[in-house]
Amino acid sequence: MRVGFVGWRGMVGSVLMERMRAENDFAGLESVFFSTSNPGGAAPKVAGGDPLLKDARDLAALASMDAIITCQGGDYTSAIHGPLRGRGWKGWWIDAASTLRMAPGSVIILDPVNRKVIERAIKEGKKDYIGGNCTVSLMLMALGGLFERDLIEWLSSMTYQAASGAGAENMTELMKQMAFLAGECQQVMADPAASALDMEKQATAALRGGHMPTEKFGAPLAASLIPWIDRAVEHGQTREEWKGSAETNKILGREDRPIPVDGLCVRVGSLRCHSQGFTLKLRKALPPAEVAEIVKGANPWVRLVENTKEATLAQLTPAAVSGKLEVPIGRLRPMLLGPEYYTAFSVGDQLLWGAAEPLRRMLGILRGG
Ligand code: NAP
Predict the structure, then answer these.
(1) Nearest CA, atom 21, ligand 1
(2) What digits encode the pLDDT tens for the residues 200-243?
(3) Which residues are CB-neighbours of 200 under 8 A, at least 6 positions away?
(4) Which atom of ligand 1 is nearest the CA belonging to 77?
(5) Residue 124 has pLDDT above 90, yes or no
(6) Could you identify the atom of ligand 1 that is nearest to the CA of residue 14?
(7) Which one of 56, 142, 200, 271 is most buried, counting C-beta atoms within 10 A?
């Protein structure tokens, strides 16, 4: 199989490369690497890989691939996918960007949750397989058991999304903001007579002083947060919030009888991992032990974390979860709102199950895995 990789050096792409190397996925593939910024440069070294980068805008070169995996982003997909299909290319298009997710001919891929939907689409001859929104995929991995049994009447997810979810340059900006803040506060922190309030005032002055690098996020994220992700759509939602309901129901193949999903999406200063606080209304009252059993049995990656301070601090933070395929869910308890209401909190590496992992597994499915 001749596979083209586009966007392999971005946040998602570099995690995809790591995972494919770790799982020996390159063996038996003829891998060709493309670039939008450095065609002719050296390609990453992998078994069976072409040594030079090809031009990611060269349609003829792209058309010689059996499959293309792109983590380059939505603008690239918008510019290339249509013209490539237009010239009759019938290969597999596997994409991390949102552009094609809701297109009727495409499938949103999250095989531990919707393998049957994927297999049906392959049989029907569908060729576009698109990774889901990161928070949606992680929510479905965490709550898949309840969805599978159709126990959820509605769901609200309030998110706490990492800087790297916005891409490599945004994550770099957060690191620069942290360094800037540390620099601005160095003197006050070294002063033994300075109080915590003195430090806060110095830091707040730095946040508001206009010199912090904010070109990417548009506002300070370090020592702050931004309750807005992506652009505005209808009903006062952001597009990130709109994806909650639209993509969940498409992944589950139940667009004709959708489960309402809504909430606020917030960017926070974690580097990697999206966290979410859930409010669930179940279709019927269920005892906590039964809900816990259903949640933890959904797939091999979901981990139920005991609702204690010790377990939460040790297992349910971005610091603990970054770089891991496990999707821990904790703080699970019935709410005082009524016997059908539950709350829970989940943390998942959005670069793994929220992005790269479904892409590499899709390639595996196409290779007969
Ligand atoms: P990204 O880090 O911004 O990378 C995209 C491209 O930007 C790279 O392939 C590279 O292209 C270029 N680039 C420019 N400066 C770079 C730098 N300093 N380091 C690395 N690459 C740089 O984007 P991404 O976060 O991987 O997202 C790719 C797609 O996946 C997007 O559509 C996004 O919405 C989607 N997605 C992202 C996440 C996530 O958590 N980040 C999760 C799910 C889906 P060239 O090599 O051609 O220059």
Answers:
(1) 10
(2) 999 999 999 999 999 999 999 999 999 999 999 999 999 999 99
(3) none
(4) 32
(5) yes
(6) 26
(7) 142
Question: pLDDT digits over 37-46, tens only?
Answer: 999 999 999 9
The token duo for 175 is 């690191």
* Nearest atom of ligand 1 to the alpha carbon of 36: 47
188 vs 206: CA distance, rounded Å: 12
Pocket of ligand 1 contains residue 9 by CB under 6 Å: yes
Please tell me the distance from the alpha carbon of residue 43 to that of residue 364, in angstroms, as a whole number.
22
Q: Which one-letter DSSP state was computed for residue 163?
A: G
d(CA 17, CA 352): 11
Active site residue 211: no
* Ligand 1 centroid from CA 96, angstroms: 10
3-state secondary structure of 2: strand
Inform me whether the pLDDT recorded for 148 exceeds 80: yes
Residues present in the chain in total:
369
Clarify whether 185 is annotated catalytic.
no
Find the distance separating the first CA and the last CA of the chain, reported in whole Å. Answer: 14
Mean pLDDT of the residues in the chain: 97
Return the percentage of the chain with pLDDT > 90, whole number. Answer: 99
Give, as one character, the DSSP assignment of residue 164: G
- The rounded Å distance from CA 196 to ligand 1 centre is 38
Catalytic pick among 71, 81, 134, 265: 134
46-81 residue pLDDT tens: 988 999 999 999 999 999 999 999 999 999 999 999
Q: Does ligand 1 lie within 6 Å of residue 17's CB atom?
A: no
Q: 342 C-alpha vs ligand 1 centroid, how far in Å?
A: 36
Residue whose CA lies nearest to ligand 1 atom number 8: 10
Query: Nearest residue CA, atom 34 of ligand 1?
Result: 97
Spacing, Cα 128 to ligand 1 middle (Å) = 20
Q: Is 274 within 8 Å of 354 (Cβ atoms)?
A: yes
Q: Helix (H) and strand (E) counts for the chain?
A: 12, 14
pLDDT at 3 over 90: yes
One-letter amino acid of 243? K
Residue 369 binned pLDDT confidence (cut-offs 50, 70, 90): confident
Average pLDDT of 87-108? Answer: 97
